[in-house]
Hints:
The protein has helices at 41-47, 76-86, 98-107, 125-134, 137-140, 143-154, 161-171, 176-183, 190-201, 220-227, 243-246, 248-261; strands spanning 4-9, 14-22, 26-30, 52-56, 65-66, 92-96, 114-118, 208-212, 232-235. It is an alpha/beta fold.
Amino acid sequence: MKAETGRATTPDGFEVAFETTGRGPALVLVHGLGDERQSFAPLVERWRSAFTCVALDLRGHGATRGGSDYNPFSVEHDVVAVVKTLGLERPLLVGHSLGGFAVTTAAARLPVRGVVNVDQPLDLRGLSALVRSLGRALWDEPAGDIVLRVLANLGFGAMPVAGRERLRASEGRLTGEILRGVWLPLLEDEEKLRDRVRRAVAGLHAPYLSLHGSGVPAGYPALLAQLIPGAELEDWAGHGHFPHLAAPERFSERVLRFAASCK
């Protein structure tokens, strides 16, 4: 079954590249910072007989070009544009890291079947503190090197060597402009940042699975319950920041069960 490629235009000027393959209900796949849509290839092979898989490149990543706004609160436009361009009806959204935040906020604007957020807490204070601690390194060091150090600290679990090599190459293409565009907006006042997240997810009423491989922050279950009532949270301890690639069979089966449970 050959994959078909296309592009969707966002209101803020990005031409979002995507590819589709498979048959069945729509499943939209969104990668993390510095990564690309090819990261989901091992999972697409497992899902293509059950879903129409749509994998996209976020703004500034892979084959997506144009625009200049990389604010994490704007990235939802990439997901919304692809869903609307393809005319997808109530897709299931799966996103990793930055992509997990993108599918969460996009689901507050779209009718969706459900959302799977992979290792991206909606409490952004920890990431904000990390960005603040980097200081001049955000300007002085290669962006890919910075992100790879952060990812190594979060852990890779049993992610295959080939997957790590692909990730290293992908992160090497990340520019400082994009990294700063994503991370610097997180340096807002702590209360303003929390309020912004609350407003961004306020319209989300679909089934929600928050799956963590690199640890669940203290107090996060209670916060998630406040932000998204009824959300499920799972801690896959020891699987690292890429649990979907460290344990693809387990993750694939979990998504299938989650999809079956969504009304």
